[in-house]
Write a structure and sequence with these properties.
Elements: H1 2-11, H2 29-32, H3 44-53, H4 59-67, H5 86-96, H6 101-108, H7 120-125, H8 153-157, H9 180-191, H10 207-219
Helix pairs in contact: 5-6
The structure holds calcium ion (3 copies).
Residues 112, 114, 116, 118, 123, 139 line the site of one calcium ion.
């Protein structure tokens, strides 16, 4: 299921000329559980595991560009000794249950760790709107400024990535605006049984996905 999703995401259709796609390169998990340690340098295997698992995502490279560290995908830039964001905490929990990092990554894929309405795997593999053919929204940060919704207080209120970390799923054609082309793109995904039409994230394409799409479209991208 996930492999099929990843493959389709890489090769999905181009509903608009500026369809941002390209390479998806991600990383993160090396830092995912670094909380135990004083430094994420102690967990290069986690970072490698994440990049190996999601080779098409550019998320960690973007984090490096935005915050100065790929580890910001999971850790707060203020210090790797802190708990980190919600995604990292979810991974940490799985590791504490005895899972190896590869299995922990899979276990948290269906979760919405940052509570922005989009599951972790969808965020990690979602092509970004905008220049650069970037791929991946942070599964641990949310909102238009990239804040950590998991951490309260001043730290959680501060923008971290300073970029949008909640994809607008109603923008089905990834053109950056909501219009009739999104209905066409969604309809195409649905007919082709493409997982991108599964907006209820239950593994089934049915009327509820249409309702979810229309709801998200009516509310607009800013609502998510
Ligand atoms: Ca999410
Ligand atoms: Ca997010
Ligand atoms: Ca569904």
């Amino acid at each position: 299921m996930h492999r099929a999703f990843e493959k389709r995401t890489r090769t999905g259709n181009r509903a608009c000329a500026a369809w941002p796609r390209g390479r998806f390169t991600v990383i993160c998990v090396a830092c995912a559980v670094g909380a135990w340690a004083a430094s994420t340098q102690a967990f290069p295997a986690y970072l490698e595991a994440f990049e190996t698992k999601y080779p098409t995502s550019t998320l960690t490279d973007r984090m490096l560009a935005q915050t100065g560290s790929k580890c910001s995908l999971c850790h707060l830039p203020q210090g790797t000794f802190l708990d980190g964001n919600c995604y990292r905490l979810a991974l940490k929990f799985q590791l504490q249950q005895g899972k190896i990092i590869e299995d922990a990554l899979v276990a948290v894929e269906p979760l919405d760790s940052d509570s922005d309405g989009v599951p972790n795997l969808v965020e990690i593999l979602r092509p970004r709107v905008g220049p650069g053919n970037e791929v991946g929204y942070s599964p641990g940060l949310s909102g238009p400024e990239g804040k950590d919704s998991c951490v309260g207080g001043p730290i959680g209120q501060q923008p971290i990535s300073k970029q949008n970390e909640s994809p607008c799923l109603a923008d089905a054609d990834l053109c950056g605006a909501l219009d009739i082309d999104d209905f066409i793109a969604f309809q195409t995904f649905f007919v082709l049984n493409d997982p991108r039409a599964d907006l209820t994230f239950d593994g089934v394409l049915d009327i509820n996905d249409y309702i979810e799409f229309q709801t998200r479209f009516a509310l607009g991208c800013s609502a998510f």
